[in-house]
Design a protein that fits this description.
Helices cover about 25% and strands about 30% of the residues. The protein is α+β, with helices and mostly antiparallel strands.
């Protein structure tokens, strides 16, 4: 069955986004023709939102997302015939443990991800990485699980052992959340990010122009990008800041905000 793609994604101007949605529609056509479920790869919340916005306009299918745990950011989207139930769908993901002696070597999310990608595995095959004191747990597509177990031997200079765990062995690390109450002159990216990351507006502007910040999981190089309640700002190596509440103007005309910084 051929879909009317121009009507569904003709308005998408970004080449990469259009290519992603075209692949999703390829999968939808397979579902409708062969009457079997299909999966996307792992995607961040922004791209998952794009996918869902297209799938919501289609009939004769159902869809669901799964990332291995309820608050996962990176998820796979399953597309299946509307007469099937979700219990019949396999999201084809595995939970791997990357363990090593990291007491003398401080490693980060970036170190683990870099070691995995260094093996030639694409980011879209990897879900969330959960760093613990003993190493890392990572959700991956089944297609790359065996390869990772056999080939990932080091993270930084530390030797590691990779094993597969049952999904109920997943351990969610406690996130440190710091609430920040501040006032800003305007709801611009540079102003909000400077308040959230406790740095000067001029410095944060340089970081934005260097494309080190993301707004709602999209790299943003526009210092004056508008910010609204609910937005998420990420800074490479510094964590994330959620715009929890925009409270209104103070007597001096500044805008009162509540931010949550995830460390």
């Amino acid at each position: 069955m051929k879909l009317k793609r121009d009507l569904l994604i003709g308005h998408i101007r970004e080449r990469e986004e259009r290519a992603l949605l075209a692949k999703v529609l390829d999968r939808v056509e397979i579902v409708l023709t062969n009457h079997r479920p299909m999966l996307t790869n792992f995607h961040d919340p922004y791209h998952t939102g794009l996918i869902i916005s297209v799938l919501e306009r289609l009939t004769d299918i159902e869809f669901a997302t799964e990332g291995g745990f309820p608050i996962a950011e990176r998820v796979r989207t399953a597309i299946f015939p509307d007469y099937m139930t979700l219990e019949e769908v396999d999201f084809e993901m595995a939970l791997l443990s990357i363990a090593g002696n990291f007491k003398m070597n401080k490693v980060s999310h970036r170190d683990f991800l870099g070691a995995i990608l260094g093996l030639g595995i694409k980011r879209e095959m990897i879900g969330d990485l959960l760093v613990t004191g003993e190493g890392c747990q990572v959700l991956v597509a089944n297609d790359v699980a065996s390869y990772l177990r056999a080939n990932l031997t080091k993270v930084q200079r530390v030797g590691v052992e990779v094993s597969q765990l049952e999904m109920d062995k997943l351990v969610l690390p406690e996130k440190t959340v710091k609430e920040i109450r501040s006032t800003v002159a305007s709801l611009r990216l540079d102003a909000i990010a400077a308040a959230g990351f406790s740095t000067s507006r001029s410095r944060i502007a340089r970081e934005i122009l260097a494309e080190k910040l993301s707004l709602n999981w999209q790299t943003c190089s526009n210092v004056s990008a508008g910010i609204k309640e609910g937005d998420m700002i990420s800074m490479r190596g510094r964590g994330r800041v959620e715009v929890a509440e925009v409270k209104g103007n103070t007597r001096s005309g500044r805008i009162s905000i509540l931010l949550r910084r995830y460390l």
